[in-house]
Description:
Blueprint: E1 5-10, E2 13-17, H1 20-40, H2 46-77, E3 82-88, E4 91-96, H3 103-133, H4 138-158, H5 166-179, H6 182-211, H7 215-243, H8 285-288, E5 300-302
Parallel strand pairs: 2-3
Antiparallel strand pairs: 1-2, 3-4, 4-5
Helix pairs in contact: 1-2, 2-3, 2-4, 3-4, 3-5, 5-6, 6-7
The structure holds zinc ion.
Amino acid sequence: xxxxxxxxxxxxxxxxxxxxxxxxxxxxxxxxAGTVLPAVAPGYLGAAYLVAAAAVAAALLASIIxxxxxxxxxxxxxxxxxxxxxxxxxxxxxKLEREPDTPGAAARIALAGPAVSVAIGVAALVAxxxxxxxxxxxxxxxxxxxxxxxxxxxxVFNMVPALPLDGGRVLQALMWRRSGDRNRATISxxxxxxxxxxxxxAFGLWQFLENGSGLWTMVIGWFILTSAKAEAMRARFQxxxxxxxxxxxPGYGPTEPASGQPTDPWSSAQWPPPPLQSPGPPPPAQWQSxxxxxxxxxxxxxxxxxxxxx
Length: 310
Ligand SMILES: [Zn+2]
């Protein structure tokens, strides 16, 4: 996800917008101004609804950035670099430079985002209650409470224990700690994500058949489904690499150390390797160039706001 527009940097972390966020922010503003706010706080001019809705949309984007900053700051505290934060149609992505070293670090990084969303949600609801009590115009009170509710919904949806959601990362970290195998934990958490993705797609389809809506729900489900599949595929690559036998071709893999013991990364492999029965096929071209398994974005922290959009 490459940002189309760079906003700058916060705490040294570049913040960018993908063009798709503009469509969603626009749709969100129009829906809020056209139907939601007039129902909650009737009797205002159309322009007032539009201004209030645009303010909520802008505050929501800031909330998503804060959520991603939560992940990012905790990642940095756990020695995981952050390449940047990008907002797109389905929410935000904080791109980490690598995977965390321990299950504890993975869980802390995953929990930090929803914790920020809960804090913003509660603060907005308290502010809205206070504003209502002191006689602030009903439209401002309604806008504040909507901001609070959306942040809480965002936190709850993200804590569903299915990759690529934050809750899926917590589940992955728990299974990783129990089994000691990060890749198998990823595959399991991603399989929950696949089921969740299919369930959301099915729900969207039901909505579509029922009343013609649900297209966006299906997009969200499909996004979760494909992201979960990609995470599982990368984990399987890693797992297979670990399980590969010691190198059969000179020059690829670990060199034989003086002690005769293998070094990482294939410490479980038999060393020295058994004699070859036949010369065998040449190594894959990708291997020769040092790009096997193929590089991929392995550490996206992806958030889905169930409401809007994703
Ligand atoms: Zn998150």
